[in-house]
Write a structure and sequence with these properties.
261 residues, alpha/beta, six-stranded mixed sheet, binds adenosine-5'-diphosphate, binds magnesium ion
């Protein structure tokens, strides 16, 4: 019997952005239910990796390259949203309009930002939206305007929006960027619960501390290439992280988290 295809599979993916090569011959495969971190310095190609899934960036065509989601080369946004909940800072920014938090979460069902007169919100959608808001601890903010939320609150609302379809995995591009310490801690705690509830977490980040204990595999990205990929304990060594970031560090492991000093 054939094995189930991986959730996401990059085969020899090369992406140019302008004249610059942003990803070069990337091979990586992420299975269903895997919790993975993609770690790399600024400019290493992390967001390009995510934007290739959403077709905001296109790989260079060649016979031996492909990007497959559940074994398929082509998919549309409606199929994609029920497989992967992708949250980028661009998405969060576009959600900061004249909508309530509840409208933003419900609009996940229509792949829109906010609700429009032709959208028919059904009771089952409301129930799922309520559940997602409870999981992200934003239920009390449901009627608040998105423009009046803190950065951390708005980000949690947009993650709840991505969860309404019960995707196999959440893809989070720098979810703790520009959050203060408290908001960062809260988001990591909540994401641990999301992972515990069975949604895969694909954490794209340059912060080692974003690697919540539930994440077992780490992929290091350096200058558009996969620099290392494997079990967290094997990949996160001080030598590798120094080579990745080009700085001297001390690596400390505590309570399932890794920190650099
Ligand atoms: P990361 O998310 O790891 O910081 P990116 O994927 O955003 O990295 O960027 C990878 C490379 O692509 C970098 O060299 C960056 O300068 C370049 N790049 C990013 N966005 C653009 C753009 N809109 N136009 C041209 N080059 C870009
Ligand atoms: Mg980025």
């Amino acid at each position: 019997m054939r094995d189930d295809p991986p959730l996401i599979e990059y085969c020899n993916v090369t992406v140019y952005r302008g004249q610059r090569i942003a990803l070069e011959g990337v091979n990586l495969s992420i299975g269903r239910g895997e919790n993975v971190a993609i770690l790399g310095p600024n400019g290493s190609g992390k967001s390009t990796l995510v934007k290739t899934i959403t077709r905001e960036c296109y790989p260079r065509l060649s016979p031996d390259s492909s990007l497959r989601i559940l074994g398929r080369d082509t998919w549309n946004i409606f199929e994609l949203r029920s497989l992967l909940g992708i949250v980028s800072s661009d998405l969060v920014l576009s959600c900061l309009g004249p909508y309530t938090a509840r409208e933003i979460v419900l609009s996940g069902f229509f792949s829109s930002i906010g609700l429009w007169p032709h959208h028919q919100v059904q009771p089952r959608m409301e129930a799922k939206a309520d559940r997602a808001m409870e999981l992200l601890e934003v239920a009390h903010l449901a009627e608040r305007a998105m423009t009046e939320l803190s950065t951390g609150e708005a980000r949690r609302v947009v993650i709840a929006r991505a969860l309404v379809h019960e995707p196999m995995a959440l893809v989070l591009d720098e979810p703790t960027a520009s959050l203060d310490l408290h908001a960062t801690y809260e988001l990591r705690r909540i994401l641990r619960r999301v992972a515990g509830a069975g949604t895969g977490i694909i954490m794209v980040t340059h912060h080692l501390d974003d690697i919540i204990p539930e994440i077992g595999r780490v992929i290091l990205l350096k200058a558009g290439r996969v620099f290392a990929d494997g079990p967290k304990e094997q990949i996160l060594t001080v030598e590798r992280l120094e080579a990745l970031f080009g700085t001297r560090f001390e690596l400390v492991r505590r309570d399932g988290y890794y920190h650099l000093w």
